[in-house]
Amino acid sequence: MNKKTDFNNKTILITGGAGFIGSNIAFYLQDQYPQSNLVIFDCFRSEETFSNGNLKSFGHYKNLIGFKGDIICGNINNKSDLALLNDYKFDYIFHQAAISDTRIYDQEIVVKTNVNSFYDILEIAKKHNSSVVYASSAATYGSMPSPQTIGKEHPENPYGFSKFLMDQIASRFSKSHPNISIVGLRFFNVYGSREFYKRKTASMIIQLGHQILSGQAPRLFKGSNNIKRDFINISDVIQANINACRPKKSGVYNIGTGSPRSFQDIADILQKNLGTDLGTEYFTNPYKGYQIHTQADIRSSVENLDFKPVISLEEGIKAYIPEIKNLHNQDLL
Length: 333
Prior knowledge:
333 residues, alpha/beta, Rossmann fold, seven-stranded parallel beta sheet, two-stranded parallel ribbon, 16% strand
């Protein structure tokens, strides 16, 4: 088993720390390592939207209520904003800031935000000899058949392409700076606390939960019994990030459960926990190139990160129900 990292008296940067995964990492470290020095860098939400109507940024102050560390509002693309980090010497960097919407097709802004800024983050790591854990994505695999395996990538949207470029940059960086730990985590379908403000890009679990609470039958694509994804709870994702600070070796790793579940399973588990029997409404899938099946090959993650997902879909959804109920009909502002 990997020796646990002691983050007390360490200075830790979390980019995208007002977002879903970043804020969860921040609160985990604050709770478990109260002597740690936490710095969040996030551009926070503006009212700007992309051409598809989705927000350009999802960082939300409500995800950070109760956070006691430093918060810097800045854009990862802005050199003068990044210069605000010069007053710190970071021991660890969790790099979560990104355009993460898979249906943004403005290639320039996606690559500039996700790729160019990564070079800047690595310059900070080089300057301070910081360990780096960054968000990669299962989108790097596109529609490759399951199980999705490191080395068999075929990105099919700008987001997936940008993350694949980041993985290649990290690999080159690791070879030229072997003394610096750098780990990329390819998250599969993450769900759980603090995702609400992602709006339409939040998991189908909270979206279907709110449909059901509104008295509507959950709406699924036709054939949803056979559409399966690797859903992973945010608690397991946090542990992956923490373990990635002390890897057996630098590299990129899949973070999923290895046990895909169907969309129908999710609707049925939600209805069971919410005490409803509304049936299911089916409609034709409007998307081309849609992933029908994902399953993370996590063998190398188990071996090199001591990663062991422990929360089943049933347990994860049951624990999530109070927050789903609490957020129902709440304002997204």
